[in-house]
């Protein structure tokens, strides 16, 4: 076991320091790309709240935040791409530049739905910033303007990502022991 690592974990994939470097890089890119424009960051709860909080502090310029929460209708519905909005945005995004902030792009079903939904509200633009993406897992190609780190195709937790609502508080991203979720 790596020193200081939670006992339910196999290994750390990205340390706190590695994550910080990537978040800063994305924040600086966003600041440059949206210079002189008003930007609305939309985080997808719950997982993205940690990334959103850190990313926000590297963005210079006019930026506002809002949050959405979505839920799949269960395992079968998830594979059909149907998601339900649990919490919607507070304000209209008409004529706004919107950047969706996600912690992880896995099958891509959540983002496919969100992109379609938000684009139907007449924004000026909708783009995606995802901290992690799982290579080759997406059924449909999704164009992400900002991508942080390639994530191994394993069950990862920490930095906002959970298993059964646990481990979100870990400052690093790590692989969970299979015995924890198969127990
Ligand atoms: C996770 C993650 C993304 C979604 C990605 O959320 O935060 O929103 O899954 O998966 P996909 O690409 O296969 O759609 P989750 O449903 O675990 O909810 P949480 O963020 O509240 O933990």
Stretches with pLDDT under 50, minimum 5 residues? none
Sequence of strands across the biggest β-sheet: 4-3-2-5-6-7
Bound molecules: 1-O-pyrophosphono-5-O-phosphono-alpha-D-ribofuranose
Alpha-carbon Rg, integer: 16 Å
Structural class computed from helices and strand pairing: alpha/beta
Shape: globular
Largest sheet: 6 strands, mixed
Roughly what fraction of the amino acids lie in strands?
A: 25-35%
Mean pLDDT, nearest integer? 92
Q: What is the number of E strands? A: 9
Describe the structure.
The protein has 183 residues and is of the alpha/beta class. The mean pLDDT is 92. It is globular, with a radius of gyration of 16 Å. Strands 4-3-2-5-6-7 form a 6-stranded mixed β-sheet, sandwiched between helices. It has a 3-stranded antiparallel β-sheet with strand order 1-9-8. The chain is 26% helix and 32% strand. Bound molecules: 1-O-pyrophosphono-5-O-phosphono-alpha-D-ribofuranose.
Which helices and strands, and how do they pair?
Layout: E1 9-14, H1 16-33, E2 39-45, H2 49-56, E3 63-72, H3 75-80, E4 83-87, E5 97-105, H4 109-119, E6 125-134, E7 146-151, E8 156-157, E9 173-176, H5 178-181
Parallel strand pairs: 2-3, 2-5, 5-6, 6-7
Antiparallel strand pairs: 1-9, 3-4, 8-9
Helix pairs in contact: 1-2
This protein binds 1-O-pyrophosphono-5-O-phosphono-alpha-D-ribofuranose.
């Amino acid at each position: 076991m790596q020193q200081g690592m939670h006992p339910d974990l196999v290994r750390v994939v990205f340390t706190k320091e590695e994550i910080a470097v990537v978040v800063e890089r994305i924040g600086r890119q966003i600041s440059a790309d949206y210079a002189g424009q008003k930007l609305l960051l939309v985080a997808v709860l719950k997982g993205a709240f940690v990334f959103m909080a850190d990313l926000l502090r590297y963005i210079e310029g006019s930026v506002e935040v809002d949050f959405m929460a979505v839920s799949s209708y269960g395992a079968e519905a998830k594979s059909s791409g149907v998601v339900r909005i649990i919490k919607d945005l507070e304000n209209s995004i008409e004529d706004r530049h919107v950047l969706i902030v996600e912690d992880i792009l896995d099958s891509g079903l959540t983002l496919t739905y969100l992109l379609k939904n938000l684009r139907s509200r007449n924004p000026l633009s909708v783009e995606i910033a995802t901290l992690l993406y799982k290579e080759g897992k997406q059924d449909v190609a999704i164009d992400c303007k900002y991508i942080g780190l390639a994530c191994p195709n394993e069950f990862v937790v920490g930095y906002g990502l959970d298993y059964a609502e646990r481990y979100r508080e870990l400052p690093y991203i790590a692989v969970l022991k299979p015995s924890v979720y198969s127990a």
